[in-house]
Amino acid sequence: MARSRVIAVAAACTTVAAAGALMITGSASAGTISGTLYRDTSTPVARWLQSNAGDSRASVIRTKIESQPATRWLSNFNISTIGSEVSSYVNAANAAGQIPALTVYGITNRDCGGASSGGAPDLTQYQTWIGNIARNLGSQTVVLNLEPDSIALLTCLNSSEIAARNQALRTATQTLKAGNPNAKVYLDGGHSAWNSAGEQASRLVAAGIASADGFYTNASNFQPTSAEASYGRSIISSLNGQGVSGKRQVIDTSRNGGASGDWCGDDNTDRRIGQYPTVNTGDANIDAYLWIKPPGEADGCRYAAGSFQPDLAYSLASTAPNPPSPSPSSPAPSSPSSSPSSSPSSSPSSSPSLPTGACGATLRAVSTWNGGYQGEVKVQAGSGTPSGWTVSWTLPSGSTVSQVWNGTLTSSGSTVSVRNVSWNGNLPADGSTTFGFIASGTPGTPALSCTSP
Q1: Does 222 share its domain with 123?
Q2: Which has more confidence, 438 or 95?
Q3: Is the keyword Hydrolase assigned to this protein (predicted)?
């Protein structure tokens, strides 16, 4: 069975990079999520770099892996500490105005006793653990990939154990959604070289996908994104045929930029990091390309599952092109554009006079490079924007916007519009907020309009 073992109990989160990524241009997210994925800076790869700055592999690993956002794995089953772990991570992401993504991995008898075995001693304690996660998810968008391999891998369970697991997953999904109605919960969809789409869809229905937002695939393998997208469409079609509609896919693209096949990434040097993590997929069926399985963390073949191995990381990244600079996945943490707060500006040099009407907007180029730039737009309220705001402008010739954070992008020809996201739309009189974007071409000096319904 073609599959890859996932992170062990001791594994923590890691940030991952995609090189050779395809940047989606023009339209907005297309799926149901908009914004910027959160990049954690306290990860196994980051810690390795701090201790091995002089290593010959460090530059490549830092540039192509450590620089990018990834999911954080909740794999250490500890009922007393899980709440604070989740709260700290989610609060940090919210403070940065970014989307936290978590992979929940603690179900009883996980990995069927394989290299990543462990989890809750029983399903009752599992639900207590899930409840502690749910109570600490905040109220903003958070992505949750629930229990890798829990649905695609059932060979070690008898029929009553399968029924109990399905019930546990249904309850967990409902608990997480109740804890934060803005949480996006995705169930295990296996991958395109494992179960058939019809079989996987039936398993997803049994496990309660009706209450979830969709399913994720490829967390346990290296199948090409195109194959996973096709597989996802087939699952969605089968779900529709079984009376479950409106579900979408997340694809793990962390290690699918090279050869596919043999499941064990520890032993295969033909793997490459894949597409950059983004929620701007351009595909209405796909909510995100995520880095679920961190590059450089072992599968349990040559090394202990979940351990960070710099030679694996270097092998995955060494021949991949560099990501654009600055990273398209996240603004600099210190940039005002990363703050979700909406407050009056204190910088006279960047504050326009109070606009007449609802709001006004000003654009500055944060940084430029050959063929592109990062822009920041300050939205300044006049009378206030209780129903939200939209900023529009005409791009200079040859310029296209590829990604936006702290806003939702739409485009029509050379005209682009960015609307607020849920947390930064209601600006009080004289309040302000910012959003950022990555664009090709040169910044120019376009005239921006700001309106509020």
Answers
A1: yes
A2: 95
A3: yes
